[in-house]
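Q: Sequence in, structure out?
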Amino acid sequence: MTKTKHTKVLIIGSGPAGYTAGVYASRAMLDPILVQGMEPGGQLTTTTEVENWPGEIEIQGPELMQKMEAHARATGTEIVSDIITSLDLSKRPFTAQGDSGTTYTADAVILATGARAKWLGLPSEEKFKGFGVSACATCDGFFYRGQEICVVGGGNTAVEEALFLTRFASKVTLIHRRDALRAEKVLQERLLKNPKIEPLWFHVVEEILGTEDPKGVTGVRVKHVQTGAEKVIPCKGVFIAIGHAPASELVKGQLETHMGGYVVTGPDSTETSIPGVYAAGDLTDWKFRQAVTSAGMGCMAALEAEHFLAEQG
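A: Exactly. Output:
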């Protein structure tokens, strides 16, 4: 049986941005409903050690998200295990349809659906995610001090990650399917001048190699795209840096987006192109993509929603 639930603030997404928005919206007495989505907790639930969350010297990603969820619940956020399949932002109250059959109506909406790292799609890549395979150098680079690692990609993301990883690694091999990078020229110059980085042109990753006990990466098998010749590159970590895809399917054609789907927000704001709709976290942040910055934007979105609703009376 279908039912309708109304709320002053509907939060869509349950990563650091969503849960923080829930805490602040609840403290503002807005009785928010938070719909968790397909991956409750977001990208951090696939991360192991988190060492850059303020106040926690080290914490497991899933544990951190459990704590944030519990905090949001304790402040009064109604957390719903559902997936929003469609969202109508053409008029207020805004209307969202849940996969459960529930229809949600809201006076304001906070979008915190995040972004997903693009992956190669290899079975071996999936096998070693969190055990030597990562898509976030700033999250996991610290664990590879003095080790040889590989970065896959050729755009800004790949070059920035390779340069960042030289702070820890003894050697970084950049694997790219072409013989020229797509990154900005200044980044290319920095990479090519760095003695720790060795580009491997015209190659693609065929398989990530590793051990079972303990589980970990030992190297990558690569193939030359022109000759078909294969070889193994020894390494302890593989960073996939072929970009991120913002989870903005719900608002396609409704909100202003840029750079491949990231939602555009106002300067120093989480306001979108539709009044009463706010975007926070990796859905709008193509640059930093950190848990702490996402949480900060979740706070901003809730405060801005509170002000908007107060102005509406």
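The first helix runs from residue 16 to 27.
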